[in-house]
Prior knowledge:
Elements: E1 2-5, E2 7-10, E3 13-21, H1 38-67, H2 69-72, H3 74-83, H4 85-98, H5 102-118, H6 123-143, E4 157-161, H7 166-170, E5 177-182, H8 190-198, E6 202-204, E7 218-222, E8 227-230, H9 234-258, E9 271-276, H10 282-287, E10 292-297, H11 311-325, E11 329-333, H12 361-366, H13 368-381, E12 386-391, H14 397-417, E13 427-431, H15 434-438, H16 440-443, E14 449-452, H17 454-461, H18 480-495, E15 499-502, H19 510-519, E16 523-526, H20 531-538, H21 543-552, H22 559-569, H23 571-576
Parallel strand pairs: 3-4, 4-5, 5-6, 9-10, 9-16, 10-11, 11-12, 12-13, 13-14, 14-15, 15-16
Antiparallel strand pairs: 1-8, 2-6, 3-7, 7-8
The structure holds phosphoenolpyruvate (PEP) and magnesium ion.
Amino acid sequence: MKTYHGLGVSPGIAIGRVCRWQRAPKSLPSYRLRPEDVEAEVARFEKALSRTEEEVARLQDEISKKIGPEYGEIFSVHRVFLQDKILREKTVEIIRRERINAESALETVLKKLGELFQRGPDDFFKDRRRDLLDIVERIITNLEPTGTRPSLPGKNQVIVAADLSPSQTASIDRRQVVGLAMEIGSPTSHAAIMARALELPAVVGIGHILNDLKDRETIIVDGETGEVIIQPEKEVLAAYREKRGRLKQWQKRLKTIVGLPSETADGHRVALLANIEFPEEAATVKKYGGEGIGLYRTEYLYLNRKDLPSEEEQYQAYRKVAELMEEKSVIIRTLDLGGDKFPESFGFGKERNPFLGWRAIRICLAREEIFIDQIKAILRASVHGHLKIMVPMVTTVEEVEQVHRILEKSRQQLRKEGKEFAEKIPLGILVEVPAAAILCEKLGPLVDFFSIGTNDLIQYTLAADRGNERVSHLYQPCHPAIISLIERVIQAGHHHRLKVSLCGEMAASPELACLLIGLGIDQLSMAPGAIPRVKEVIRRVTWERLQRIREQLSEFSTHAQIYDFLKKSLSDVLAES
Length: 577
Ligand code: PEP
Ligand code: MG
């Protein structure tokens, strides 16, 4: 038995047989042409191009129908490459000038273009390079149209590859393939996105593995933990089979709950929303019955690159989420950089205490031009759906006043530029600094909603770094001080007729969700996959019962007491789920 660790990018357990997909190191034909054959070779290339165009259009259509238009969109990049002048004209030029066959000419062009993308700063460019490789491979296959693509024999295959191109992933037969394991890749690579869409458990970024494996060996892929196990021992295999069985049962039950309203048994409604990081996750949110997006973290647009994303690039991303979510609302959190996220483009100096330093709204107010680009992109995208703006790490009233000023300035710029945008957009704050929670009576009149960010509120209130193992015992969501602050924010919000939501990790825990509902929270936002279980528990309790729990909270003075009390009081509903 051998265990490898990668990044789980599509949840679920796959148990099957290894099927290695290696790019065949095709030795491409290479030969010189007689002058009288040159034009025939150009024609052969042109024909392969149009065959490839038809093929990609068909694939795009199939995928759009099979799993949704947003996935079909992946092939738009391929179509752009096919129409690209450099690829087309340069290849023809080389065939004519050097009098060589189309395969060799394409190889030369690919090398040049590939180098350009290789020099690009981030995952985006690397993904585009893979797209380019994918498309050139297709053209080459179409130069010899008699060649057929190999089909896989047998069932329960787990595909192990260096990486899969979008068209390879798209041509996977769900009846034969149960999982994917890839040497490279990231959560945003096409293969990862497609794996999620196809609901195939997948792990990427495992490192060199292909050479250690043989076809048909037994393999386990855990898309949650990122573990990949080859030739598992008997007990390990049995444990994973059981885990897979439990997950399947749960999936079945999940289907029955997704369409049901999120309300207590006596009819008290609580909206369950989702936290996302990538636009494509909107599809998952809908699948799990999320009523909207309560936290769209936008930092990924700024990380792993040397430059800043333009207003246009951001507009496209926000528009995509808005359109995918249709009539449902999407709360876009403005940049929350600093702390543990330092993009190169900001030229951060080292800070002694980054979580108490130049972070989130503090950076945005200091670098107004960057903030304005983001606000303009959100205002423009909100024409296409129901967007709201949420500002992180607010500490003072002046910060919110400044955000209003910048919002107005952004509107003025858009008017001048003649760009379409929504005049009105709800503005809220993430209450995650104790000062904001204490000051929320004063902050209420300045905003349209509050969202409590308990991940940070707990760390700042209890002075316990959320990522430091040594103080993790102090990271206590049920600490009476935390509960008191949450109550305070809910009361102040309701006093100002604002909806109050909570988007920290504690929202995903069924017992803590019950506690929060008892305290009067209006909305809970969590990882999409956590929604069904929380909903199931909410539907089993009554509001009245949660009020009784709330009334007894004052008898306790520690996190442990409150947490035990909650667990005991709700043991019947928690055990059933
Ligand atoms: C929070 O602080 O609770 C929160 C939701 O934001 P993040 O985890 O991104 O800091
Ligand atoms: Mg936070």
